[in-house]
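User: Sequence recovery, please. Input:
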């Protein structure tokens, strides 16, 4: 599985956020990240297809009740892997976060 992921390259969002500069070991660590419970979230195939490689500036979960968790997870994964957040992405995250409870996010940086 990892071999196929590496052959296809990084997901577009990771690549565009700085992952393009990662060496093979870092890409493999990202692809196999099991240390964070935020890395993989089970979703329906329909939801996965509708999101594709969009960021929060162009896609949010259709159910408003899922948006706070989505914003939290997005920020945590970006922080964990030291990935950039572009201005439109940041604006969408900030706007949606205003409707979320003020809960600290704990993130362990990836090695």
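Assistant: Recovered sequence (111 residues):
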């Amino acid at each position: 599985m990892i071999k196929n992921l590496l052959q296809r390259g990084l997901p577009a969002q990771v690549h565009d956020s700085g992952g393009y500069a990662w060496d093979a070991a870092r890409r493999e660590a990202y692809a196999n990240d099991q240390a964070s419970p935020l890395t993989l979230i089970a979703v329906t195939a329909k939801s996965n297809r509708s999101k594709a490689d969009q960021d929060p500036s162009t896609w949010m979960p259709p159910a408003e009740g899922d948006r706070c968790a989505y914003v939290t997870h997005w920020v945590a994964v970006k922080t964990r892997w030291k990935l950039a957040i572009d201005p439109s992405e940041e604006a969408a995250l900030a706007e949606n976060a205003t409707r979320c409870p003020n809960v600290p996010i704990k993130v362990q940086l990836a090695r």
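The radius of gyration is 14 Å.
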